[in-house]
Structures are given as C-alpha cells and as structure tokens.
Design brief:
Elements (H helix, E strand, L loop, with lengths): L3 E6 L13 H5 L15 H6 L6 E11 L4 H10 L3 E12 L18 E9 L15 E5 L9 H10 L4 E4 L9 E3 L10
Parallel strand pairs: 1-2, 1-6, 3-5, 6-7
Antiparallel strand pairs: 2-4, 3-4
Length: 190
C-alpha cells in the first residue's frame, strides 16, 4: 500500500447523535437540520478508517473540523496515529459580496470560520516543512455546500513541497494528489 508524507482530510462529520447516525438521517432532515447534501459518518466510523496504514513514518496530517467537532477531531487525529500540533489553516468564509459570513450555532458565537488542524506522525515530520512563510488565514467565498477552498491544497504543496500526498473525502481529482472518497474515483481503498 502506498505511504504518504501528506494526508489532507475533510471528514463528513455528523451533526446528529454522533454515535447512532443512520442512513435514514442521511436522506432526510431531522429537527432543525435540513436534508444533507452527502452521507455523513459517525466519529467512531471516521476513527476506524485505516489511515495509519497509508501514513509514512514521517507524515503531516491536515484535517478539517468545525468548532462543534473540535474535541472529536482531536480524538480522530490520535486514533489515526498522529499528534495534534497546531491550527494549520483558518478559513474565513465570505459571501458573494466578499463580506464575512456569520452563523449562529447552538453552543457557539457568531462564526463564519472553519479550522484545518495540523498533526504530525514521526520524529522527523517537522523536516517535511520546506517553506515557513505560508500563511494560515484564508479568506474566500463559499461555494457548494462544505467545499473547501482549492487554495488550501496549493498552500499545502507550498508548505511541504512535491511529496507523496493524498486527499481523503475528496470531491474532485486534483493533479499531483491521490484521492479517496465517495464523490470521486479513488486512488486507494481504506
């Protein structure tokens, strides 16, 4: 199985009861949550993915989370064999008029940002960083539901160089990246 020095993931987090998400909940709205745009996974199902098997001895993981899922994301990072280090990227979402978007969640303040955490595996993972001038803040317009800015992939390559890399839960094939996901023909199976 191919081993990667960079793994970039955007897990399909569940906003329902995380441990009992059902296929029916993927197909219809529940309570105040409208019909989902794609199938979601419980955090236990996300943890169960064999990401350890595709991570090189020294590897950097970039994984998207919302503030609501932050604790679960840290658990996923550990289960996948990585150690949380810092926030890799902060995406400030903009509307069509380039104004910040703000949402109000059940337990959150008005926020229009998402976090991409950075975690590492291996004692020499820091040596994978080739450019220390890459900025964390990304301000870009929202596109389709949950789609992250393409610029993030470019910044990851700028940060780490042209190493073996994969995008998990990808929606599109991007040159230079292997992919895994149910919305694109994948390079690997997990």
């Amino acid at each position: 199985m191919q081993k990667y020095q960079v793994i970039y993931a955007d897990p399909p987090w569940s906003y329902y009861n995380d441990m009992t998400v059902t296929p029916e909940q993927n197909n219809q709205g529940v309570g105040s949550i409208s019909k989902l745009k794609y199938p979601v996974m419980s955090s236990s199902d996300i943890k169960a993915l064999k990401v350890k098997d595709i991570a090189d001895n020294n590897c950097i993981l970039f994984v998207w989370t919302t503030d609501y899922h932050l604790e679960k994301c840290i658990e996923v990072i550990k289960e996948w064999g990585f150690n949380y280090r810092t926030i890799g990227f902060v995406w400030q979402k903009l509307n069509k008029n380039n104004k910040p978007v703000c949402f109000m969640g059940t337990y959150t303040l008005k926020s229009g940002t998402e976090l991409c955490l950075l975690a590492t595996k291996g004692k020499d993972a820091a040596k994978l960083v080739k450019n220390h001038k890459v900025r964390a803040l990304i301000q870009s317009q929202r596109e389709e539901h949950s789609k992250k800015p393409d610029e993030v992939r470019d910044r990851i390559v700028e940060l780490c160089g042209d190493v073996l890399r994969i995008e998990l839960f990808a929606r599109q094939k991007t040159e230079g990246w292997d992919v895994f996901g149910n919305q694109v023909e994948g390079s690997i199976l997990l």
